[in-house]
Design a protein that fits this description.
TIM Barrel, eight-stranded parallel beta barrel, globular, binds flavin mononucleotide
Length: 319
């Protein structure tokens, strides 16, 4: 099974990817969080820096572009191809209100004819291979067959399907029945995405879709950075490993130039995913949440890693 790490804006940046690759090298590929180019293909300096080859040494990485303008996509694609990227990904799944209102991200799915026109222009002038990360629809997963008809017209490098519509955000049950249509006589590799958090989740998916060759993991792999190893039959996440990952990531972010004053807030974003690994540590987690400066944060994190109960099999997103 080909396993990739999903793009997660604000979480799986360059420092995260480097540290993850060093300590848990079992993912086949990483997708970078989206670049949002302007009409000339320019984008935020910090987003661009995170894609420079020197920021991602030895990492199998696919950059992602969020735009509904074919010319902006192509301009960004040319610049990325010059950096050496052979494959790029189109974001047709971001559900955020500000993105959708501009008919970008999952907003592109509301009008299959415009999506078709966009892909037609892009595929006429592409400097490299392109894959699409799509949802099943904007308002309903029943929109998916019409979208598939459009995707089937293009030689995509891969179709990654997050098995929800926009209304489902990140919470609704994934619609496996609607997803199944993407596998029927697929002219490109199909990658399933959505709620694969454990070995048993992957086993159920394999039983349901024996021909499925690719799976993308997002939140599950942030909660448990060893998930790729576990899905390949390896050992479960250890407490010391998670501590080592945490410490290395903090150091990497500081070395990358993150001002120490912002470091606690940045690291606390990860604790949204890790809290469930420490059941019964409410008091220590509260102290961590309250820590304002880096020394206080370090000491609160160290208490949790050294003394709180650790449960790598805890349920994630169960409440
Ligand atoms: C905080 C966060 C940031 C995300 N950023 C992106 C992004 O930049 N590009 C994208 O295509 N999807 C993004 N996603 C969606 C994930 O890539 C993935 O499709 C989604 O989390 C479902 O997979 P999972 O159930 O394995 O987490 C993001 C999701 C979250 C929770």
């Amino acid at each position: 099974m080909f396993l990739s790490f999903a793009p997660m804006e604000g979480v799986t940046g360059a420092a995260f990817r480097r540290v993850h690759r060093r300590l848990f090298p079992e993912a086949d590929r990483y997708y970078a969080p989206f670049l949002a180019p302007d009409a000339q293909g320019r984008c935020k300096q910090s987003h661009w820096r995170a894609l420079l080859p020197e920021a991602n040494p030895g990492l199998p990485l696919v950059p992602q572009i969020l735009t509904n303008s074919a010319s902006a996509f192509l301009a960004a694609a040319r610049a990325l191809a010059e950096l050496g990227y052979a494959e790029l990904n189109l974001n047709a799944g971001c559900p955020s209100g500000t993105v959708v209102s501009k008919r970008k991200g999952v907003g592109m799915l509301g009008d299959p004819a415009s999506l078709d026109a966009f892909l037609d222009k892009v595929f006429q002038q592409l400097p490299c291979a392109v894959s699409v990360k799509t949802r099943l629809g904007l308002h309903s997963t029943a929109e998916f067959p019409a979208l598939l008809e459009v995707y089937r017209r293009y030689p995509l490098a891969e179709l990654i399907v997050h098995a929800r519509d926009r209304e489902g955000m990140y919470r609704s049950a994934c619609d496996h029945a609607a997803f199944a249509a993407s596998l029927e006589d697929a002219p490109w590799p199909v990658c399933y995405n959505g709620d694969v958090f454990s070995v048993s989740d992957l086993e159920s998916l394999r039983a349901e879709f024996p021909n499925l060759g690719r799976v993308m993991l997002g939140r599950g792999a942030v909660r448990d950075p060893a998930l790729f190893r576990e899905l390949r039959g390896g050992a479960p996440l250890g407490r010391e490993e998670l501590c080592a990952f945490h410490d290395a990531l903090l150091e990497e972010l500081l070395a990358e130039g993150l001002p120490p004053v912002y470091a606690p807030a940045r690291m606390k974003e990860l604790w949204y995913y890790w809290t469930c690994l420490f059941p019964g540590a409410d008091k220590q987690l509260k102290a961590l949440k309250k820590s304002r400066d880096l020394p206080a944060y370090r000491s609160a994190a160290s208490v949790i890693f050294t003394s709180a109960d650790f449960d790598p099999f805890s349920l994630f997103l169960s409440s």
